[in-house]
Amino acid sequence: MKKFWLLFSQSCTVLLAAYFVVATLKPQWVSPGNSVRGSIAMLEAPAPQAGEVPAGSLRVAAQKASSAVVSINTSKVASKNPNANDPWFRFFYGDQGDEPQGGLGSGVIVSPQGYILTNNHVVEEADEIEVFFNDGRKATAKVIGTDPDSDLAVLKVELDKLPTIVLGDSDALQVGDQVLAIGNPFGVGQTVTSGIVSALGRNQLGINTFENFIQTDAAINPGNSGGALVDTNGNLLGINTAIYSRSGGSMGIGFAIPVATAKQVLEDIVKDGKVTRGWIGVEPNDLSAELAETFDVKTKEGVIITGVLQNGPAAQAGIKPGDVIVSIAGKPVRDVTQLLSLVSSLKPGVEAAFVVQRKSEQLQLQVSPGVRPKPKAVKR
């Protein structure tokens, strides 16, 4: 019995020793499913289940919004030089080509009826506008109306079963919120980039007459103009319109027109074919200590008027140079941008209450706004 037990013990010892030698030198022989690459064991994550969204992915928002973002190609017939047929002109300057000029941009489908929001500078002076959809279709679009003051335009296509984007709430945005920019940069095809809201209410950039931009670091490049800035639910927050760049490409400073502004422009254009804004005929300036001292103004808030158009709406209501506009229709006025925005929202011909500070006296005047004159074309 003792001999048998001794033999059994020795056999187990030899087998265990052999197993450890093999497991160390050739582990794949022992467990082929857990191979060792080099000298480091590689742990692989389990494959995600079908339809499962990885943590932190913005896939759902991108898929929801992308179908409603379109690419826009524009063409313009080149103007022929009147001297093109002159032999001497052709000798010195050669044949002047009359190839049509093309442009690229993006747009957002905002209604099943085929209305598309884009930038005015994308379609400005275009003779033909072709829209390419995410599902492979394409159609020729016509311009319903444009608004150079906000750099927005509304197009329309005659197609059915169009996907539309959901309008979000740009007024609820906060700095640091995640956003996606969707468009057709450089004509490479639809592209989605991500970032955050870097700043709100950007103005005095010299881009538009009325500026209240959302600033983002989501990459926006030429061709993205008119595309969508969306939240993490895929809802539209703004229309991408401009970038700050020294190279022509993205440097992490892009600007979008808030959807609150775009919605108002859209409604006015669809209803009347144009945007009608109020106008009072004044030259406003932000109130500084120097101006307050010059005009002997006894307030530190509001916008000072340094010039009044003769026989304009403001002059007829009694507003004079040196007056400080404190509020309009019950809403406080803090700077020139806000003044322009509040005046432009007034309905022409309908009186509105203006609270004005004149030196040490506060007055309430009723101003009947006129229609804002059409802006002059500006090269972008």
Low-confidence residue ranges: none
Largest sheet strand order: 7-6-3-4-5-9-8
CATH superfamily of the largest domain: Trypsin-like serine proteases
* Annotated CATH architecture of the largest domain: Beta Barrel
How many individual β-strands?
A: 23
Strand content: 25-35%
* Quaternary organisation of the protein chains: single chain
Count of runs of 4 or more consecutive helical residues: 9
* CATH uppermost class of the largest domain: Mainly Beta
Mean pLDDT: 83
Our count of domains comes out at 3
Q: Work out the radius of gyration.
A: 32 Å
**How would a textbook summarize the main sheet?**
7 strands, antiparallel
Dominant shape: elongated
Structural class: alpha+beta
The span between the termini is: 103 Å
- Under CATH, the topology of the largest domain can be stated as Thrombin, subunit H
Q: What is the helical fraction, as a range of percent?
A: 10-25%
Structure notes:
The protein is an alpha+beta fold. It has 3 domains: 60-77 and 99-156, Trypsin-like serine proteases (Thrombin, subunit H); 170-272, Trypsin-like serine proteases (Thrombin, subunit H); 278-371, Pdz3 Domain, CATH 2.30.42.10. Helix content is 21%, strand content 31%. It has helices spanning 2-25, 27-30, 59-66, 87-93, 120-123, 259-272, 289-294, 313-317, 336-344; strands at residues 36-37, 40-41, 69-76, 101-109, 115-119, 128-132, 138-140, 142-147, 152-156, 178-183, 191-202, 213-216, 228-230, 236-243, 254-258, 278-279, 282-286, 303-308, 324-328, 331-332, 352-358, 361-367, 370-371. The protein has a 7-stranded antiparallel β-sheet with strand order 7-6-3-4-5-9-8. The protein has a 6-stranded antiparallel barrel with strand order 10-11-12-15-14-13. Strands 17, 18, 19, 20, 21 and 22 form a 6-stranded antiparallel β-sheet that branches. A hairpin with a 2-residue loop joins β21 and β22 (361-367). The longest helix is centred in the first third of the chain and has 24 residues, at 2-25. The radius of gyration is 32 Å and the shape is elongated. It starts with a helix and ends in a 9-residue tail after the last strand.
